Each structure stands twice: as structure tokens, then as C-alpha cells.
Amino acid sequence: MLFWGIAPVVGLSSSTTTNTCPNSSLTHLNVSLLRERIAAGRVYQQPNFFSKQQIDDILAEIYLLKQDGVFAPSGLSNTARGSQQAFGSQDRSVCVVPWWSEMLLQNNHTVSPVSMLLQQLRLQLADVLDRPTMSDPTLAHECYYSWSGKGSFLPRHMDERHEELKGPKGWLLPSRRSLSWLVYLSDENWTLEQNGGALRSFPQQTPPKQSPQHDGNLQVGWLLRQQKAVYLNSWYLLSGFNEPHCILYTVNKGNEKRYLTRPWLAELLQGTSVAEFLGRMRDQDSSGLQTTTLFLDPEDARDFALLENRSAWDRGELPEGSVVEDICPTRNLLVVFDSVMLPHQVEVIKEGNRIALAGWFHEQTQEFPVDLFAQT
User: Fold this and answer.
1) Of 74, 143, 174, 322, which is most buried, counting CB atoms within 10 Å of its CB?
2) CA 350 to chain CA centroid, nearest Å
3) pLDDT tens digits, residue range 78-101?
4) Among the residues of 49-187, which ranges form H helices?
5) CA 169, CA 261: separation in Å to the nearest integer?
6) Which residues contact 167 (CB under 8 A, 6 or more apart)?
7) What are the start and end residues of each CATH 2.60.120.620 domain in the chain?
């Protein structure tokens, strides 16, 4: 029997605890390597994250949930198809971890060692990577079990994107995904040659020197030759207009903004997504055949690459400026990466069951600037 949410999870030994956080040494993180890998837009790996007993307990719960039919197919949604997703046998199946919400809010009198470790992981990552709002337990941090059998795969995707790239609803949620994490619980002795199922990521060949956010504005692309992050400010005030505009910019060494485009109103795109608009304007303004429409300099248009270019990916192209890194989903391996920066996919599983405890730690969504109109 499973005691969802309010009591110790079956098989996960529990202990009475207070609201204090366990010692950071419990996570065994290599802090310097963690900072380096996340800043470079790459995957951090930590082997032997759980004890053997903890792995056995988690797997026991997963098998029970699987037996009870709680897992449901979940591929990657295609917004163009709406509700007609037709997920099937080649999609992974997932299940929300039943005790996760109670663990975050600590409404339970007892907390298992596994939940304590995950809580400590979140708090330590928030501290080490200077993402303070990630420590807020009331944000919509996510956690799920994932089960993928033979033939399953996940196509290339991003776990998170700029609020403006999500459409009008992007600004309605109080938080967004900040860090993606998984602890693999796959069949033992897993190899890519025999089992497949690699986590294939596409970091930039040259490690970036800038954060994926600046002044609360998220990165949406790169200037490839300069290896500079390109940010989207959705709150740019244009003289003579009451409504804030969108504008792309980079940041120079002195933390000075250099604008790459003219301001535009996202509301006037009329059925075209911001990503599609930027891709079309890049192609048009980089041609050199006419005066630029959006980009101020045709050289910047030629150098600009979107973080997420679905049309190019659908043509089989790799993310511009990237290299391929494959990670084997070895049992008890923790992986962490930035949800905004890193395109990734899961290769086809040839044999066995690729299982994981995974999720996303959230940060607060950029708030409406309270002094926005005081700047005019």
C-alpha cells in the first residue's frame, strides 16, 4: 500500500525531522566542477548520488506505481497538433512523484532520507549557482518518475525558454524552470552500445562567458563568432509609445548593453511566434540585398543563431556552433544542466528499461518592472 503525500513512502525509511536543512555534504557535489559545467552550458555529472538502499526503495515504489497503472505515456507535445498528440509505445511513460509536494512544503511530520537529499540538492544548487529564488519551496518545482522501454526516444528540445517565446501565457506563471536534473535508475550494467538511450546534448563548442540571464532577461540566442549570449528585453520603452517593446541585446565587458535590433511589438506579429519572426528577420537582414528591417547591422544578423531553432532541427541540422556530447544513463548517476541553455534529446533505447527520478527546480518568473514608466 502506498501512503501518498502525508505519510512515509512505502519502502523509504523515514525519520522525524524539523524544518532545518541537512548538511550540504550529503549531496557530495563537486562544487567547482558544478559551477564550471553549468556556466559552460554543459551537463554536470555526479555518480553514486543515492545509497544502494535508497535505490532499492525508490525502485520498489516505481514498480508498485507501474503495477497500479499510475504511469501514463508522455512524449513531447506538439502545440500545432493540440490535443491530438497520439502518444504511443515509443514514448516514455511518466508519473508524478506522489510525496513531492508534501516534501516541499514540509507538511509531513516525517521525511524520508531520499526526500531530504533532494531538498538539500535544491538548496545547495540555489546557493552555489546564485539562484536565490530557487530556494523558495512554494514555487512549482517539479519531480516525476520516468520509464522508457525498448524503442522509446525523445526528440531534440529545450526544457525552458524566454517568457515571450511562450506567447501571452508565458508571463502568467509565477515561476519557470531553472535547472533540469535526473538521477538514473536504469537496468544495471547499462551500456550505450548494447542498450542505447544516451542523453545527447548540444553545448556550444566554445564555452560561453556569460550567464543565460541578464537583469532578469533570458537568453534567446547567440552571436556565434563572438560567442556572446543574446538576451531579449520585453520591457523596452520607446519614446512616444506607452507600451513596452521587445529588443535584442548583448552585454559588453563593462556590463554595457549593445542593442542588436530595432524595438518591436510582439502583439503585432499576428499568429507568428517570436522565434519564427526572429528567424525570418535574420534571414532577410543578413542577405545584404536591402536595408535591414529589424537588425541594426547585417553582420549581427548573419552571426545570430536562435537557441531553439525547430525548423532547422526538423531539417536534420544540428544547433549552430554546437558539439555533440553523449551521456550514458548509468544507474545512480545524477545529471544537472541549465534548462534554458542546453538543447538535448534522448537516443533510441535498443534494449532494457531506462528509468529515472527527475525534475526541474524553478526560479521566479521575471516580474513586471514596477518603475517601468518612471524611466520615461
Assistant:
1) 143
2) 26
3) 333 334 444 445 678 999 999 998
4) 52-67, 100-105, 113-128
5) 24
6) 273
7) 28-201+323-364
Judged against a pLDDT cut of 90, whether residue 19 lies above it is answered with no
Give the length of the chain: 376
Contact 249, 260 (CB under 8 A): yes
Residue 10 has pLDDT above 50, yes or no: no
What string of DSSP letters covers 181-239? EEEE-PPTT--TTTTB--EEE--BSSPPSS-SEETTEEEEEEETTTTEEEEEEEEEPPT
- SS3 (DSSP) at 352: coil
In this prediction, residue 51 has a pLDDT band, given cuts at 50, 70 and 90, of very high
CA distance to 12, 105, 141, 213, per residue, from 110 (Å): 11, 12, 20, 37
Predicted confidence band of residue 177 (pLDDT cuts 50, 70, 90): very high
**C-alpha R_g of the chain:** 22
Query: C-alpha grid cell for residue 316?
Result: 536534420
CB atoms within 10 A of CB 356: 24
Three-state DSSP class for residue 128? helix
Phi-psi region of 255 (alpha: psi -120 to 50; beta: other; left: phi over 0): left
The torsion angles phi and psi of 148, rounded to 5 degrees, stand at -130, 125
- CB contact burial 254-292 (16+ within 10 A = b; e otherwise): eeeeeebbebbebeeeeeebbbebbbebbebbbeeeeeb
pLDDT average, residue stretch 209-237: 93
Which CATH class for the 28-201+323-364 domain? mainly beta
Q: Crossing angle, helix 52-67 and helix 113-128, to 10 degrees?
A: 110
CA-CA distance, 107 to 102, in Å (whole number)?
5
